Amino acid sequence: MKRTKGICKIIMCNFANWIRNYKIYFVVLTLVIFVLDNYTSVFDFAQQARFRVSPYLFPFCFTHPFMRIVIFSCVIFLFSNAPFISDFQLLLLSRTGKKKWYLAQMVYIIICCFLLTAFLMVLPIIRNISMIVFLKDWGKVIETLARQFDIVHPISYQTVSRYSAQEVMVYTVCVSVLLMLLIGMILYFCNILFRNRSVGILICAALVLLDWFVYITGNMMLLWISPISWIQMSNMAYARERGFPSSIFSIACLIILNIILLLSTYFVAKRKDVVEV
Questions:
Q1: 3-class SS at 53?
Q2: Per-residue pLDDT tens for 196-211?
Q3: What distance in Å separates the CA atoms of residue 276 and residue 264, rounded to the nearest whole number?
Q4: Cβ pair 78, 27 in contact under 8 A
Q5: Cα dihedral sign, 57-225-277-273
Q6: Sorting pLDDT into bands at 50, 70 and 90, what band is 19?
Q7: Which residues pair with 53 in a beta bridge?
Q8: pLDDT tens, 230-246?
């Protein structure tokens, strides 16, 4: 019980530090600008057609590869200094112990991944709440835009035509959290293992750029080694298609990778002197 309370206190201190953390303001501002702009065409069309939009917009936040670069670059920037060592954190570490402190930082990253995903989900809904209607499926606006190839918009025809809104929402939320956690744990692990923080940043940047390379080359075989591309469900194997990773494969693979990174980081951190980190 004491251990749990100590971990909770460290996490609360991390969130309290958001007031002075310029990274939070930069990430929030960047995402607000680009995410709202991403949905402008959808709400403009809905206004002209005099229809309201269903709230299942989150999957289309990742349709364009440029948006994936923006969002996951913000994640890299946010977690680039994991495990977030500062003078105040060193004081907490000396009071709580190394194991408890490192574990608290991992839980903090996991919570941040959920919060960031939730922020991306609700941002366009809150901004355009008067034009939102809660339906069981995609709704007329999204279904119409999915067939309008002559209009520039983020709606994916393959996603809308193949899957239900609930399926895509659940899948996208799961993969979003797992991908953000993967990036956070790669940075955490590399920052502890290596003295040079650029190692983890370069690895994560390579994953983001690999997704862009898959897009411009159209080489679907690279999907097997491009986890950022898995966020878009239309890239996954549909029904009995072969040669592409399936949605089950992507989620299972991300869970396994995150578990390996979490365990590896914890055991490496226990043996690493904080002065070296």
A1: strand
A2: 778 999 999 999 999 9
A3: 17
A4: yes
A5: positive
A6: confident
A7: 132
A8: 999 888 877 556 778 88
What's phi and psi for 276, nearest 5 deg?
Answer: -65, -40
Per-residue tokens: 172: 């996208």
Which pLDDT belongs to residue 260? 95
d(CA 125, CA 217): 34
- Residue given tokens 């909770």 in the structure block: 8
* DSSP conformation letters of 195-207: S-THHHHHHHHHH
CA separation, residue 108 to residues 65, 197, 262 (Å): 28, 20, 13
Cis peptide bond prior to 154, omega within 30° of 0: no
**For position 113, what pLDDT does the model report?**
95
Please give the Cα distance from 113 to 157 (Å, whole number): 28
Angle between helices 247-271 and 98-127 (to 10 degrees): 140
Whether the CB-CB separation of 230 and 250 falls below 8 Å is answered with yes
Q: Is the predicted pLDDT of residue 168 greater than 90, yes or no? A: yes
Using CA atoms, how far residue 258 sits from 14, 50, 181, 229, in Å, is 22, 45, 7, 17
**Taking the CA of residue 255 as centre, how many other CA atoms within 13 Å lie in the half-sphere pointing to its CB?**
7
Per-residue tokens: 2: 């004491």
pLDDT digit string (tens) for 76-95? 999 988 787 766 777 777 77
Average pLDDT over residues 97-106: 82
Token digits of residue 187: 């940075």
Token match 């229809």: residue?
Answer: 51
Q: At 119, is the secondary structure helix, strand, or coil?
A: helix
CB 150 within 8 A of CB 45: no
Residue type, 95: R
